[in-house]
Amino acid sequence: MWIDTHCHLEAPEFAGEEDALAQQAAALGVSQIVIPAIDRDSFARVAALAQRQPNCSYALGIHPMYVPQAADADLDILRQALTAAQSDPKLVAIGEIGMDFFIPEYTESPLRERQEHFFVEQLKLAREFNLPVLLHIRRAQDVILKHLRRIRPPGGIAHAFNGSFQQAQAFIELGFKLSFCGTFTHERAQQLRRLATELPLESLVIETDAPDLAPSWAVSRRNSPLELPRIGEALATLRGVEPELLAQATTANALAVLPRLAALTGP
Question: Is pTM, for the whole model, over 0.90?
Answer without folding.
Answer: yes
